[in-house]
Amino acid sequence: MVDFRFDIKPLFPQPIIKVASSLLPHTFRGDRRQCLDATSKMSEIIDQLGQLSAVSQGLSKPVTTAQRLRMSDNQTIYLLADPEAGTNGLVTGLLKVGTKDLYLFDEKGQTRKMENSPSILDFYVHETRQRAGLGKRLFETMLKEEEWTPLKCSVDRPSEKLLAFLGKHYGLVRTIPQANNFVLYEGFFNDGATSNGQSRNGHESPLSQKNGLHITNSPNTQLFGATYLGDEANKRSSGGRRDSGSQQQSSLLQQITQISPNGRYGAPRPTCSMAEIIHAGSGNSGKGGGGSGAESSSGNDIAEIAAQLQHLQAGDHYSVHDLQPELEIEPEPQPDPEPEPEPEEVYTPPSPPPKSHTPTPPTVRSPERAESIIGDNRKPPAFQLSKQHTGMKNRSFGVGMAVMPSSKMEFNQQEREDFGVVKINRPLGNEITSPGHDNTDAMSTVSSGGGLTDQGYNDLKFYHNKLW
Ligand SMILES: CC(=O)SCCNC(=O)CCNC(=O)[C@H](O)C(C)(C)COP(=O)(O)OP(=O)(O)OC[C@H]1O[C@@H](n2cnc3c(N)ncnc32)[C@H](O)[C@@H]1OP(=O)(O)O
Q1: Can you list the domains of the chain with their CATH numbers?
Q2: What pLDDT is attached to residue 103?
Q3: 403 CA distance to ligand 1 middle (Å)
Q4: Is the CB of residue 96 less than 8 Å from the CB of residue 121?
Q5: What letter does residue 283 receive in the DSSP assignment?
Q6: Which of 84, 319, 372, 399 could pair with 366 as two cysteines, CB 3.0-4.6 Å apart?
Q7: Where residue 41 falls among pLDDT bands split at 50, 70, 90?
Q8: From the CA of 169, how far away is ligand 1's center (Å)?
């Protein structure tokens, strides 16, 4: 039983009092000294009942403290006492309520923002007095004072006992699932007041449902944009009414807009070089998007790169010839799209070959970029180089492009893996058909200087760092 060292009768002229942020009973009348005394005693009562409630619910710290109540301007605590019991009277129950702005799901799963929604925040009747109707008495007093109805109350993380209490006394059983700790019951959103944006208990903010989009200020909407509810939702919301406005409505449906996310989700994203390659490639080839004509500058870069690579097709250079079909950057469509098994690029870390077998270094190497970024060969590139092109991570541009996975590519790892050594190889089982296309032994093992292998390819070992 909760008794105190002081007499509670002056604080409880009636069995149930309510206390707000002033920490004074609503019935309190007194001078300044009495006011300070009452505040101190009331703080002690609230803290002790709040602690008992927390223990009863198995919480690590109390939901209700005098300090919290003092700091809040929209919370009220109802205290139930038996002033005649014991020497100084007994405090037997506590009910804390308040209003909250909540994002809630309705029965259809749509997000709604409820402002000043009535909430049951803490409820406790001393163990020795439970199941004696005191809880109901306290709750009924609160409903009357606040002019709330049980159905319109959201309940903050209710215990099993409270769920049973609400079920027994108010028939509240069927809940509406929520993403937060609050529990609502079916009917929470029902009534004329809610549907036109106002309710006696709580206030639904003027969230719109325009053009079939459910637009709220909820985190979901801000992150992912408005939810398109479809025409069915519009039919529902219009109640089946079809008048001259329906044409206008259908035209509005066309204007589906998306709320731009803001905050860090709205921040410009770093360009994805792989996406640039893919989109620019399909756009230029005319195979992917139908050639909208709206090309980004990065797309132009890629097209330019493709053009330059084309010029390098001569000779035994493998990358241009092999990469073009993969990247779809050749502007002119192939007359014969027969899916012949082309020499594929297989990159394996090979074992070092004897130097004597090393073919003559090619005189022309694919990427001008390889020359433009290496050592003494540094010179202005023939095209606009972005960070994606020239950054250390992307330095081996040709290799990066070549290893884009495709159905035509497989990785031959039969040979020993030496870190940092790249071999351009054939898929397993493929025979060399033409010396001009033989790249089986086109491997680089030793940097001959300037970051190039003695064949002139980029040596990954040279460029390796931990961040690569
Ligand atoms: C948002 C929150 O505050 S959640 C936390 C709620 N508080 C707690 O769980 C603390 C411990 N419990 C209590 O303090 C009380 O049981 C209260 C406040 C929930 C209800 O107060 P009571 O004075 O017992 O309520 P009252 O006597 O008016 O109603 C009794 C009904 O409450 C429910 N109830 C009360 N105690 C229990 C219990 N131990 N087990 C199951 N149901 C219970 C039952 O429906 C009971 O009806 P029944 O006896 O016919 O089964």
Answers
A1: 16-188 (3.40.630.30), 292-463 (no CATH)
A2: 96
A3: 66
A4: yes
A5: H
A6: 319
A7: very high
A8: 10
